[in-house]
Design brief:
It is a single chain. This protein is 26% helix and 24% strand. By secondary structure, it is of the alpha/beta class. It has a single domain, classed as Spore Coat Polysaccharide Biosynthesis Protein SpsA, Chain A, CATH 3.90.550. The strands form two sheets. The protein has a seven-stranded mixed β-sheet with strand order 5-4-1-6-8-7-9, with helices on both faces. Strands 2-3 form a two-stranded antiparallel sheet. The longest helix is centred in the middle third of the chain and has 14 residues. The chain is globular. The chain starts with a strand and ends in a 6-residue tail after the last helix.
């Protein structure tokens, strides 16, 4: 099985009032690179990042620009899945760049649940289904035709789940979230 990581990093960060949140430091790294580092530690076949404007470097990732950030997360998902499809990938592991606490072990559990092209596995905090999520190739057409800012949330309701500690699935949306996260990544 060939799996590509698709890291979504093109959000507008409307709730973050202090510049580019993915470039904001969290410990010794920009926020967005925590998720990137975790993904590159997995032995996946391809690492793709969908980005908006900005000059942040994404080492070890194929960068796919999203010049339609106003189209919402669905556009980023479509671009990432399309890039993976061109690389003859069997499944995509979609993750968000503003989720710095997701562990390698959790991502490995998601990938281990692959059972063929119909696979759809989402993370869960015990209440909600959410990214990171793994989609087999049967889902690529659906993912490429999503159209909203809710991403794949509606289809994740059908997904099998892999539980994670809720703290692992926290994202950073606001400056206050970043400040709280700094306690987990000391300078």
């Amino acid at each position: 099985m060939k799996v590509a990581a698709v890291l979504l990093a093109a959000g507008r960060s409307d709730r973050f009032t202090d510049g580019d949140k993915l470039a904001a430091l969290l410990g010794d790294l920009p926020l967005g690179l925590h998720a990137a580092r975790t993904l590159t530690s997995l032995p996946l076949d391809r690492h793709i990042v969908v980005t908006g404007s900005g000059g942040m470097a994404w080492p070890d990732f194929t960068v796919v620009p999203n010049d339609r950030r106003d189209a919402g997360m669905a556009k980023s998902i479509a671009l990432g899945v399309s890039a993976a499809r061109r690389a003859d990938i069997d499944a995509v592991l979609i993750a968000l760049a503003d989720m710095p606490f997701v562990s390698v072990a959790h991502l490995e559990r998601l990938v281990a649940r692959y059972r063929g092209p119909d696979t759809m596995v989402a993370s869960s905090d015990g209440i909600f289904r959410m990214p990171p999520a793994l989609f087999g190739a049967t889902w690529f057409d659906t993912l490429e035709t999503l159209s909203n800012d809710r991403g794949a949330r509606a289809i994740l309701e059908q997904a099998e789940i892999v539980l994670a500690n809720p703290a692992e699935l926290q994202d950073v949306d606001r400056v206050a979230d970043l400040e709280a996260a700094k306690g987990r990544f000391p300078e």
